[in-house]
Design a protein that fits this description.
Layout: E1 4-10, E2 20-22, E3 27-30, E4 35-37, E5 40-41, E6 49-52, E7 57-61, E8 64-65, E9 75-77, E10 86-88, E11 97-103, E12 106-124, E13 127-129, E14 143-150, E15 160-161, E16 167-168, E17 179-188, E18 191-199, E19 204-209, E20 212-213, E21 219-221, E22 228-235, E23 240-242, E24 246-248, E25 250-251, E26 254-255, E27 257-263
Parallel strand pairs: 3-12
Antiparallel strand pairs: 1-27, 2-5, 4-10, 6-7, 6-11, 7-8, 9-10, 11-12, 12-13, 12-14, 15-16, 17-18, 18-21, 19-20, 19-22, 22-23, 22-24, 25-26
């Protein structure tokens, strides 16, 4: 008698093996900083690639500089054996972006935020004055102090000091509440989505599945990847926000199984 046996087993996708043992990390740096993005391998690997994902530009292959663009003139690669770490000297705001150390299909990414120090403008009776020198005020003067920040992560605030007294906050002030995105991964209907609170609004999203960049997207189809580890990031004019990693093993309450039919 023929019998049909159905065997169900959890589909587990093997992860690709990578020679990269130390990976780059996202961070915020001041203008003029020397930045090190780690990419260290188990053995020499001439196929390691550094790429600027936002500009879709290959910067280095192995130890050799691939791009001829002037923008990357301050970019170097470590000279130590098995060390393919990216070095950015004297960082400027144009160096802010999303960089990837790649070994075949394995991509290890980092977002760099370059913060610019705030500027201070002092206006007395609607006229701008030199804020770096002491000024004398008289009763009835109207004083406006403007503290302007660009691409800066922490909130900016003002404090005042009179004579030898302590620092204090002004009694009347107006402040825009801006910050980098706060993000989390959610399963909504048939999608894995990156949900973020942000002011200013998000300009760019990225989703990662088991650490691999799935492109500039706010969501991916769950059925294509579950079970897997999901994370995401979002970028606005203040900086980058990253979610925690979330492991999703079920979709719409059902385990994903692969079935195999054997006729005996």
């Amino acid at each position: 008698m023929d019998a049909l046996i159905v065997i169900a087993f959890l589909l587990v996708l093997p992860q690709a093996w990578s020679t990269i043992i130390q990976v780059p990390e996202s961070g915020t740096y001041s203008v003029g900083s020397n930045i090190l993005l780690k990419c260290i391998t188990r053995e020499e690997n001439i196929n390691i690639i550094w790429k600027d994902l936002e500009k879709d530009t290959i910067i280095f292959i192995g130890k050799g500089k691939y791009t001829k663009k002037e923008k990357y003139r301050n970019f170097e690669i470590s000279s130590s054996p098995r060390n393919y770490s990216l070095i950015i000297n004297d960082a400027s705001p144009t160096d802010e972006g999303f960089y990837s150390c790649q070994d075949g299909d394995i991509h290890r990414n980092a977002w760099l935020t370059i913060e610019v120090l705030p500027t201070l403008t002092l206006c007395v009776n609607k006229s701008t004055v030199n804020a770096s020198k002491p000024i004398t005020l008289t009763t009835g003067n109207t004083v406006v102090v403007i503290c302007k920040a660009q691409n800066i992560g922490p909130n900016v605030f003002l404090e005042l000091k009179y004579g030898s007294g302590g620092w204090m906050k002004p009694k009347h002030s107006q402040q825009d509440s801006n910050d980098k995105p706060t993000c989390k991964v959610e399963v909504i209907h048939n999608q894995i989505q990156c949900i973020c609170d942000a002011n200013p609004p998000v300009k760019q999203y990225k989703i990662f599945v088991d650490g691999e960049d799935k492109g500039n997207s706010k969501s991916v189809q769950a059925r294509h990847y579950v079970p897997a580890n999901f994370s995401c990031l979002a970028v606005n004019d203040i900086g980058v926000g990253q979610s925690e990693v979330r492991y999703v093993s079920k979709f719409q309450g059902k385990e994903y199984f692969k079935t195999l039919c054997i006729k005996t």
